[in-house]
Model the fold of this input.
Amino acid sequence: MHKAIQAVAVLLLIFLSSCGDEKKTLVIYTTHGEELTSEYARLFEKENPGVRVYAIDMGSQDALDRIRSEKANPQASLWWGAPAPLFMQAAEEGLLQPYRPSWASEVDSAHHDPADRWYGTFLTPEVIAYNSEKLDSSSAPQDWDELLQPQWRGRIVIRDPLASGTMRAIFAAMIQRELRRTGQLDAGFEWLRRLDRNTASYTLNPNLLYIALARGETDVTLWNMPDIMLQHNENNYPFAFILPRSGTVVVTDCMALLRNSKQPELARRFYEFVTTRDALIHQAHTYYRIPARTDIPREKLPVWMQQPLKVLPMDWQLFAEKSNEWMQYWDDHIRGRGGK
Done:
């Protein structure tokens, strides 16, 4: 909610500042955080002096909900960042404008829409993160199921999954894993109920999650690896992470043009600008983002990116179809009730 209100304020500011401003305005909805998006907004403006870029950061589900609400009069021209299933939903609802980027042939078919309505830009692993002043790599939970042990009661903080594509992906992965194992959907919800029993709080936005973990109010969270690394290296937060032993959820973070937008040509130019080989190599080293393009020379990437990940199986189409239903059930029947 906080970021949604912030987004409205930014849109109002855009309107007011554009009055009498001869520069063209490009509005982008993004989930990639201020550090990455503000740098590339500045670089694009430098290369295009007649353009002003507003990159509005928000949760993945908040971005989709806003794009839906603005369908008749889109305020943004580009959507940069969120798990593929949310883009699948947007594509089926007619919210996205097909566009085939110049590097389309360099992305695996699993990471883009066959009708060119969205393309993956990053592959984002989800991890178990912890406060490294309170735990170390041997005492932190090593796998998903260890989070359910009694010793972690009241020691876990989680980003509210209703607004977060990252948490929706992790929750959906656990539901699907238990569904494969038992054949019962209820087994997945029981797993989430046991996690809720150990959860101290659900934060409204990532910054509140970082603060709770950094201050030692809680010891453990579930989040994406690039953001944990960025907060540790840029803000000196005492964060470290574990790649779960049984496999990690790897989200395809995507990009798409929005249908009937105000600046489609500028949006296409920005789309290409932030996904060149050089840009992706820079993003890999500076923002810990694993590129989805397969033509990036491995030796140009950080050493840690050259190691294969153990990936947890995931039916992303099922996620796209069922995530809203599953999250509504979680909100109605599980949130804050795990210990009851």
